[in-house]
Amino acid sequence: MAEATEEAVREALAGVEDPDFGADVVTLGFIHDLSVNNGQVRFTFGPDTPLCPSREAVAERCREAATGVDGVTEVEMHAEARIQAHQVQQGVQLMEGVKNVVAVASGKGGVGKSTVAVNLALGLARCGAEVGILDADIYGPSIPRMLGISGKPSSQDGKTLEPKEAFGVRAMSIGFLIDEETPMVWRGPMVIQALEQLLGDTNWGELDYLIVDMPPGTGDTQLTLSQKVPLTGSVVVSTPQEIALLDARRGYQMFQKVGVPTLGIVENMAHFICPECGHETGVFSEGGGEKFAADYDVPLLGSIPLDPSIREQSDSGHPTVVADPDSRQAETYLAVASAMTVEIAKRGQDQSQQFPNISIQAD
Ligand SMILES: Nc1ncnc2c1ncn2[C@@H]1O[C@H](COP(=O)(O)OP(=O)(O)OP(=O)(O)O)[C@@H](O)[C@H]1O
Ligand SMILES: [Mg+2]
Fold this sequence. Notes:
Blueprint: H1 6-13, E1 17-18, E2 23-24, E3 31-37, E4 40-45, H2 53-67, E5 74-79, E6 98-105, H3 113-126, E7 131-135, H4 143-147, E8 164-166, E9 169-173, H5 188-200, E10 207-213, H6 220-228, E11 233-238, H7 242-257, E12 262-273, E13 280-282, H8 288-296, E14 300-306, H9 308-315, H10 320-323, H11 328-346
Parallel strand pairs: 4-5, 6-10, 6-11, 7-9, 7-10, 11-12, 12-14
Antiparallel strand pairs: 1-2, 3-4, 8-9, 12-13
Helix pairs in contact: 3-11, 5-6
The structure holds adenosine-5'-triphosphate and magnesium ion.
């Protein structure tokens, strides 16, 4: 039998395409530390995404491809996420330790933005990522209720705040700090200052993804936030009606204006699933999300059905992804999370932290 060479194994791995990226794993830089000795192959499968089910399937195909090479007797594959920090708006610095920040936004209120944001965060955590969620919805903070957490955050040094934790996700909310009546009287600049502090003064630790649940709409406050918060990208949530999609377009355009890419759109309450019989029916006009995605050349990350159990679960502090992890709905949220990480991985990496030791000395 011919002896297996590193070249032959690399070639076999180059035949494994990751369908989400439309490229092979070698070109994508997912294969690390490949070695071949006396028929024993060792390598690390290290994608720039968490190990969600779709990526794990690719990892398995890599193992099979290596096993199939002539002369290979043993394959030792180690799979680990190697999530990188990606570019943010020009002139804005990423926070230390926080690799990617994603704003979940909507053109109008009540479309299910917070429900998507929280299930997205839980989905990422379930795939093994380090995840935080910042509730920036000063007008109606809902993350504490959805994650079943409350009370003032603690501080170890009197300067920074410790995030609260639920289901493996670190959370900070303006709702922890103020009573519900207060924010209505706050003016724009106060809101922005409060949120900048909340973002910057929280001890997030090391995060792969920080999800920011934005206040609904596209007014001055939202615009300023999208300029000041270091954002890798945005996810726009919309219901499928014409009018909601019109608002979603405004959301997309707001992010365009400040140089933040829209990673994709999530269509919520797209169709109704009958709790009695499980039958699916359209509620609003269908295909709106797809049309939006096509018009603006942004991916449709997923379509979430209108399902009363989604509301019941998040109202009770156990959102769908943790309340009913094997349900079709949880799978859809997980697919949205996975698709979002793929879109992030396709973006350019952050260069500013590549040379952390270089600083300009001032006399
Ligand atoms: N797919 C869904 N099926 C059924 N109910 C849903 C779904 N998504 C969200 N809801 C419910 O709709 C209501 C509004 O959702 P949510 O609070 O997430 O919207 P929002 O866009 O964040 O609203 P706001 O603009 O007030 O912040 C909530 O009661 C939520 O539980
Ligand atoms: Mg909300």
